[in-house]
Write a structure and sequence with these properties.
The chain is α+β, with helices and mostly antiparallel strands. It has one domain. About 35% of the residues lie in helices and about 30% in strands. The protein has two helices and four strands, in the order βββααβ. It is globular and about 30 Å long.
């Protein structure tokens, strides 16, 4: 099972699923003690679900 998180040094707290199993997010997401683990889980689960990527960005805060 695979999943990837790509953290970007950008302002704010945001994330988006690029393709199943791949999420890009701001570093603030990875530093958040609640959101970080949630995004790791979402990366793995989206890979399991497969199908086309959701292009809707997520926001937290």
């Amino acid at each position: 099972m695979r999943g990837s998180l790509l953290g970007l040094a950008v302002p704010g707290t945001w994330w988006a699923t690029v393709e199943p199993g791949v999420i890009v997010c701001s570093l603030a997401c990875l530093e958040d003690p609640h959101l970080g683990p949630e995004l790791v889980r979402e990366a793995f689960e989206s890979r399991l679900r497969g199908g086309p990527a959701s292009r809707r960005p997520g926001a937290h805060g």
